[in-house]
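Fill in residues.
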């Protein structure tokens, strides 16, 4: 199979034709039930196997639903190792593969293309990703991202929680099916863990998507700006 070779991303597809429409109920492969579109989910993981399994379910269910799927990964596989990487996630490439459906991008390069994190720019990227899904006639769009890079001293990273809060407003504006933010618990202190939980309406617990009892959306996302 062939891959689309971009500067910071590789892409893969498992579907041939797709229908451009908004699905009001979305499958995430975490349970038999479906969920409303517009899910902003927090995944707090404690080991690599857990992260990999959850990522695989999120990606695979989107591909099977003919959605355009984006994954901002901490570590990118080499071009010649892409099939092996996807197979490890339980995703088997189709002979009808197109390069548009699954977009893998190195996380720090996606969030900080010029070395600075700017929330508004990243929100514009999410909007454009959804718009591309519509123009390419996919059934919807979903994204997930690794966040280990935020522990670095990158300019603008102090606005990360503000950005997470702004995603909730974006989901009301743009019918993205789901955004799943992945956090390694060992890299979060108590204050950061509380902030992360406070801006995600949904969370993954014991492999299931549940309502987050710690969610506390402020009237204005700028309430999370650090002084």
């Amino acid at each position: 199979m062939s891959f689309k070779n971009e500067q910071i991303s590789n892409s893969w597809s498992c579907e041939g034709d797709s229908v451009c429409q908004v699905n009001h109920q979305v499958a995430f492969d975490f349970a038999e039930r479906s969920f409303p579109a517009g899910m902003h989910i927090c995944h707090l993981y404690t080991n690599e196997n857990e992260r990999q399994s959850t990522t695989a379910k999120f990606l695979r269910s989107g591909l099977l639903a003919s959605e355009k799927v984006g994954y901002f990964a901490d570590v990118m596989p080499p071009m010649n190792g892409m099939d092996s990487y996807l197979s490890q996630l339980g995703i088997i490439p189709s002979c009808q593969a197109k390069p548009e459906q699954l977009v893998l991008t190195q996380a720090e390069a996606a969030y900080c293309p010029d070395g600075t994190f700017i929330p508004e720019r990243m929100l514009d990227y999410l909007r454009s990703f959804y718009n591309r899904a519509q123009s390419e006639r996919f059934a919807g769009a979903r994204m997930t991202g690794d966040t280990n890079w935020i522990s670095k001293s990158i300019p603008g990273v102090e606005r990360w929680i503000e950005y997470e809060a702004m995603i909730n407003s974006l989901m009301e504006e743009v019918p993205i099916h789901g955004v799943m933010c992945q956090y390694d618990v060992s890299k979060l202190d108590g204050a950061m863990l509380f902030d992360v939980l406070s801006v995600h309406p949904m969370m993954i617990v014991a492999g299931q998507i549940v309502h987050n009892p710690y969610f506390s959306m402020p009237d204005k996302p700028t309430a999370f700006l650090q002084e």
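Residues 1-9, 12-23, 220-227 have pLDDT under 50 and may be disordered.
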